[in-house]
Amino acid sequence: MNSYLESLNWRYATKKFDTDKKISERDLNLLVEATRLSASSFGLQPYHVFVVTDPEIRTQLKEVSWGQSQITDASHLFVFANKKTFGPELIDSYLSEVSNVREIPQEGLKAYGDFMKSKLIPLPEEVKESWAAKQTYLAVGNLLSAAGVMEIDSCPMEGFEVEAYDRILKLDEKDLTTSVVVALGYRSEEDETQHFKKVRRPKESLFTHI
């Protein structure tokens, strides 16, 4: 656990990446798998993750990301896009996976499926979208922690134009919308931010034991 905490202290929101250093295919696969294994409400994972390396697309994204250099300079860019709405098919597809992986007849999952549908399907559309967006942040947390343990630098980002991202990545066609972006790679020696002491609220003001 000490080494894990050391990894969390080591990581920071990298402002300047080394453009010459790239994440290996092996490490990229580990980051993808760590993201895939993230927790989500009911296990439904109502989102999709785009791993963007295409230079032309990333240049377009930088223009609608306040000109932030991380978008183009990092080795890889993970774009998390949540579902804007959903119906019973989201739950049915998940239950199909449960049936296949756990070798359980789908009929035995009907009651659980009906319960999930009773809680999620009647929600207003804006609540559904907000709920789906929240799930992406659970996955982002997993990605950042995994990257820290692997000593891969990261920068989670919200400074971008959502509608422009959706247009560039053609998310409307998939009924998705961008929620958060994570740049991943290796810090530049010129990034002065790496030398700043980490600042977090003290335990006394952040936690209450009851």
From TrEMBL:
Q: Which CDD domains match?
A: NfsB-like (cd02149)
According to its UniProt record, which cofactors does this protein need? FMN
Read off the SUPFAM superfamilies from this record. FMN-dependent nitroreductase-like (SSF55469)
Q: Residue ranges of the Nitroreductase domain?
A: 9-186
Task: Report TM segments.
Answer: none
Keyword Manganese applies = no
InterPro entries membership: NfsB-like, Nitroreductase, Nitroreductase-like
Top-level taxonomic group: Bacteria
| Entry-linked Gene3D superfamilies | NADH Oxidase
Residue spans making up a coiled coil are none
Keywords in alphabetical order, please. Answer: Flavoprotein, FMN, NADP, Oxidoreductase
Family statement: Belongs to the nitroreductase family.
Question: What is the name listed in the Swiss-Prot or TrEMBL entry for this protein?
Answer: NAD(P)H-dependent oxidoreductase
Q: What organism, scientifically named, is this protein from?
A: Muriicola marianensis
